Amino acid sequence: MTDFDVKSDAFQQDPHATFRVLRDACPVHHSEKYGFFSVSRYEDVKAILRDTKMWSSKFGPGTDYSSPEAATALVNVDPPEHDFQLRLVNKAFTRKSIDALEPAIETFVADSIERLKPQGECDLMRDFAVHLPLFVISTMLGVDPKDSPMFRKWVEVLTLGTFQDADPKVHAETGQALAAYFMREIEKRQTLINEGKSLPDDLISRMLTTTEDGQQLDIGQVIGFISFLLIAGSGTTTMLICNTVHELLQRPHQLDLVRDDLSLVPVLIEESLRYRSPVHGLFRTNNEDVSLHGVEIPKDSKVMCLFGAANLDDREFSNPDTFDVTRDPAEARKHLGFGWGAHICTGAPLARMEARIALTALLTELPGFRLNGEPVLTEPSVLYGFDLLPVAWDV
Ligand code: HEM
Description:
Strand order of the largest sheet: 1-2-8-5-3
Helix content: 40-55%
Mean pLDDT: 94
CATH architecture: Orthogonal Bundle
Number of helices: 18
Number of strands: 12
Bound molecules: protoporphyrin IX containing FE
């Protein structure tokens, strides 16, 4: 059986090589070490994500079996309850509310770059990319962006929980601290409601007041959704920005193409999501015994849908191992980097907007923008990104 350890340095250093072997030689892989299965071909991954009756999210998208009773956020819930929650969330998390964030994002990015510019160099990850999504989520929720450093610490601990690594005590305490913080924010708004006063126009207020068929999200669901937004929407967007910069700056010809024609930035982002998916893969659990490519997958197995491997499948994409900003946009957009089907990423339009504004500004405001030393990849896990990404420019 092919050796595949999602937690090994060898895999993280070169996921493409492992993905290729998996797709061609072992499209359904069983890990003796972790006990889960992995599926790597595009059509198989998409078929699993499409079939929520067979492939459940009730035990959560991570390696561990989260308790179905504890399910409070969209991502752990199956239809029809998922459809109901999604309709409610979509009423609060509208395209209009996302578009309304654009000026604040533009200003935040411009100010950050203005501040960094005289230095001539920085760590793009710590000095820039980590701050943007946390600022955006805080603004969207209607809490003080100055609390972002605290959110970042919480997110780091809670993200680890997706791969069995977090100290359970620290994980539980962090979850409680986050819940207590947002409970206070909810109570502030409930007081305003009780006093007949108008609420601030933010996501927390909308989630508290939006109804669907006369029903609302309960407080536990609102807090669950907020926690999930912080985890799902911050690190991943940071990774998207850094992964894109890293791939582009290694390819002078592609860099020139984008600099000369900034209308290529949206395709650049899709190509980056395809070629270097920030999320290697997430899990489903089968409601019945399944046989796939001759492998028996017993009921209630954890099965990893390898989005990253699917996105490089030559059964679906032409020259998949070539990073190409002139790829047909329709082909690039077929990637599964935001998942697929019922659970497809709610925040995708927001992540795309943040990346577009950030990348456009970096490419236009920093002359001679280039890599500046050895980057450091994140610890191997279900995610692909950088802990350190040194860049420089001319001053
Ligand atoms: C580049 C950035 C991002 C990537 C790569 C990403 C990736 C994903 C993936 C792969 C899923 C599917 C989960 C599954 O199938 O189990 C997902 C779901 C989700 N994401 Fe994102 N995400 C990103 C940014 C964001 C942002 C900015 C937000 C919001 C602020 C967000 C909110 C969500 C939510 C709420 C879901 C759950 C949808 C559901 O279960 O119905 N994501 N994301």
